[in-house]
Amino acid sequence: MSDFYDLPFAPLALVDDVKGSSFFGGPCRILGFNRTTDTVWYIECPRNRPQKEHSNKMRSYVKKPQEKSLKLLSSLFEGSKRTAIVLRVKEEIVSDTDLLAQMKNPKDRARVEAYIKHRDKRYDIISPLLRIDGSGRIRTFAEMISDESLPERIRIRAAETECATSQVYALLHRFWAGGSRRNALMPGYPRCGNPGKSKPQNNALGRHSRLYKAGLTPVKGYPLDRYKGADAEEDEESDKQKLAWGYRLVCHEIPPHDAYLVTMASHWATHEVRPDGSVYAKLFPIHLRPTYAQFERWGKKLNKNKSVAQIHMGDKKWEEQNVARGGSVQDMTSAVGQLGIFDGTSNDNYLSSIESRLKKLPPMTRSVLKENRSTVIFGWFLGWESPSPATGLETILVGASSKVPIAARVGITIEEDQIPALLCRNYLVDNGELKAEKPTEAEVQFGIDIEYTPTYSGARKGNIESDHHTVQLQLDHRLSGTTFGKRRERGKDHPAVHALFNFREYLRELILWIVDYNNEEVIDLAPVEMLLKNPEISPTRLNIFKWLRAHGQTAEVPYTIESLRAFMLPEVDAVVRKNGVYLVALVNGRKRLIPKMRFSSPDLVASGLLSAVKSSGKSIPTKLRMAETNMTEAWLPTQTGMIHLKNASPDSSLKHIPLIDWIQFLEKHELSNDLKRGEKEQAAAERVVNRLSTIDHAREEQNAEIEALSRPPTKKSYSANLTRNMKEEMEFLRRQDQQSHQSPSFPADAEANDTAKGEAGPLEYSNAEASDAMDAFNQEEFST
Q: Cα angle at 684 between 680 and 685, to 5 degrees?
């Protein structure tokens, strides 16, 4: 036995015939070769059976290895007219771990695990035949084929494992044909009947009907997917698929049996058109169409095994409905601040813009933060941004901040403790918004922990899920522009037509609702000690929170709001200029400074950044951390720490406008200027043309005067006697001005002189009042 580097193949390579050749008869695997004996061994790979009528199945066995002349085989790969090709030289080996990782469905994973057990059981049968020297190394095919004791060993192994000798041979053949890999012994159950295809029925399955037993029907029943003959259309839909489509009709309005009857009337009936144009469906006899049991079985099977109840409830509700944990969300906590529950949804209201009530806005994202022990709501996020790590961190920041200034911006006066501020030890969130690098960094820096619920596991935080329905019923559905949580029906007005509330007005209503919610009595959550020792205290959510905190039953995290605010606020583009920090944003697709959005503070001046910009004359691009719905303050990250900035605009109303509204106004203003640009350019063009005409006329007069002189003036003469010339000119203008006030027009001789000299007349103004005012100004100016 020797290696052959001059051959285009090696042991375990897959080879096949080219089109028109039949040396191998199909794909084969090279097992080994020997130059001394001019022998090559190969084995056929699993292939389809010889074609039979209506059959396309793969053989359940692999033929034994075969041998041929090595020279003859090598000649097939030589020259330009090759009669054989190499399919694959090396195949990828997939580990069990990777194979199981590909199975996302638990049922599929369990099935693959069963296949692996079956494979290992088969491998244990032939393993002693592959390893006989005690080293654990698997012998090559050449070593095994030269072992004269192999047939006897196979018979002994068959007796030890209580299986037939032919079965041991079959397992060895499959092992060799599969490239001497363990996975070659995987069962072929998934390939039964071709992948994804069930076995055709030529006879009705199941027990016989009572009518057939009584001799009242000629056949046992209706066989699904009966072979329809060679002339059947290839795209004809199968009976089972027709039942599957009919099963999808099941809903609240169409019960399962009605869906069955509709399916029968569509596919298993004759159709007649009546004189009035209606279609009459005459069902086939019951033995010539599927039964209701067949409709249920195949409809459910081909629709991911969904029952009628699951279709009615939907996948998400079905998962929650069928999992009973026997506990409550309250079981997870015993102190306030131990767990904060976070969840977001869309509010059911269209809004109007602060700029104009006629400008409508879509519903916003509303996230709510709830303390689990007392069920107090202490944080929220409201905005049009999609749920993201930035919006999630802003919700936590609002929960840890004082709500007094937020309420004051929308015209509400509340006490500091009406909506408490705290940072919880743990946060239970969805498996989405807060899965990012920044929230993970916040866990490390502030000592909090973020727990993610599994996907489609809303029951883990069922109390806040139910609160979404509460706020929608008690707030959203009572405001104008509400969707009532439903799609708009055809013919009805779009909810945006009736939208009236703007962002600040809606936020005001939300804060008032939260205050009322926190003051609701929940006696089942109140500690018994509180009820007995302090019966005068009403067991509201807020009072329960205060009592537990006052008695040390708290697990909240200590923090400084400045550092927390600086860390969790989202970043926005900005630029440092000599008089402050300006926001930078896209306006009509172009990045530009946002006017009136200038931030500054004494700490910023003391940092020397403004002086550095003034000295260098170059602005410094940077990032500000700020809430885009609160333009009153921002934070500037520097090497020495965060610098707190205040909005320096003197216009107080501008500070309370969300950034998105101000940008929309700027975009509208720029578009308005673009529309007026034609008029402005027309006026500017007229001024330029008139100016150039005046210059040309004055130059012609100057040249005419020079030609009238005996000798041209020198350059020095132009700058001589400037003071005398000034006085003479002032006197001339004064006399001319007096003449213009004495008579409504110039004297005839003066006009004649001007015309003779070719001088341009005075500028005419369309506005007489402006002309008189200018004349009075000139007279006063030159008379002094």
A: 115
Whole-number pLDDT of residue 590: 86
pLDDT digit string, tens, across residues 491-508: 888 989 888 999 999 999
* Tokens describing residue 117: 């057990």
Task: Give a three-class secondary structure readout of 276-333.
Answer: CCCEEEEECCHHHCCCHHHHHHHHHHCCCCCCHHHHHHCHHHHHHHCCCCCCCHHHHC
Q: Flag whether the pTM goes above 0.90.
A: no
Note the pLDDT of residue 318: 63
Rounded Cα distance, 481 and 748, in Å: 76
**In the prediction, which pLDDT does 540 show?**
93
Question: Helices (DSSP H) in 328-461: which residue ranges?
Answer: 389-400, 404-409, 437-446
Task: Name, in order, each residue with C-beta under 8 angstroms of 740's C-beta and a sequence gap of 6 or more.
Answer: 746, 775
Instruction: Give the residue ranges of DSSP H helices in 222-277.
Output: 239-247, 256-267
Contacts of 461 (CB under 8 A, 6+ apart): 329, 341, 343, 428, 453
Distance CA 539, CA 425 (A): 24
CA distance 425 to 371: 11
Q: What integer is the mean pLDDT of 751-770?
A: 44
At 37-91, the pLDDT tens digits run 888 888 888 776 655 544 455 666 788 898 888 888 777 777 656 667 776 665 6
Closest to 479 measured CA to CA, from 457, 449, 500: 500
Encode 723-759: b = buried (16+ Cβ within 10 Å), e = exposed: eeeeeeeeeeeeeebeeeeeeeebeeeeeeeeeeeee
**pLDDT recorded at residue 323:** 53
Residue 65 near residue 180 (C-beta atoms within 8 A): no
Give the separation between CA 447 and CA 463, rounded to whole angstroms: 25
Predicted pLDDT at 511: 93
Q: What are the tens digits of pLDDT across the range 670-725?
A: 888 888 888 888 888 888 888 888 998 999 999 999 999 888 888 888 888 889 98
Secondary structure class of 777 (helix, strand, coil) = helix
3-state class (DSSP) for residue 464: helix
Flag whether pLDDT at 377 surpasses 90: yes
Q: Rounded to whole angstroms, how far apart are CA atoms 372 and 333?
A: 7
Strands 590-600 and 620-625: unpaired
Q: Can you tell me the distance from the alpha carbon of 574 to that of 609, in angstroms, rounded to the nearest whole number?
A: 14
Nearest Cα residue to 411 out of 543, 283, 512, 551: 512
| Average pLDDT of the chain to the nearest whole number | 80
What does the pLDDT average to over 625-644?
78
Long-range contacts from 579-582, C-beta under 8 angstroms, 24+ separation: 579/610, 580/604, 580/610, 580/645, 580/648, 581/622, 581/624, 581/634, 581/636, 581/645
Q: What is the per-residue DSSP string for 511-564?
A: HHHHHHHHTSB-GGGS-HHHHHH-TTS--BHHHHHHHHHHTT-B-PPP--HHHH
Q: List the structure tokens of 273.
A: 């058109």
Parallel, antiparallel, or unpaired: how do β-strands 365-371 and 377-383 relate? antiparallel
Tell me which amino acid residue 562 is: E
How are beta strands 426-429 and 449-452 bridged, if at all? parallel
Instruction: Please write the tens of the pLDDT for every residue from 426-465.
Output: 898 887 778 887 788 778 767 888 888 876 565 566 677 7
Helices (H) and strands (E) in the chain, counts: 27, 20
> Which DSSP string corresponds to 79-140?
SSS-SEEEEES--PPPPHHHHHHT--SHHHHHHHHHHHHHHHHHHHHHHHHH--SSS-PPPP
Tokens of 645: 């900035």
In degrees to the nearest 10, what's the CA dihedral of 45, 50, 55, 59? Answer: -30
State residue 574's pLDDT score. Answer: 92
- Check residue 197 and give its pLDDT: 60
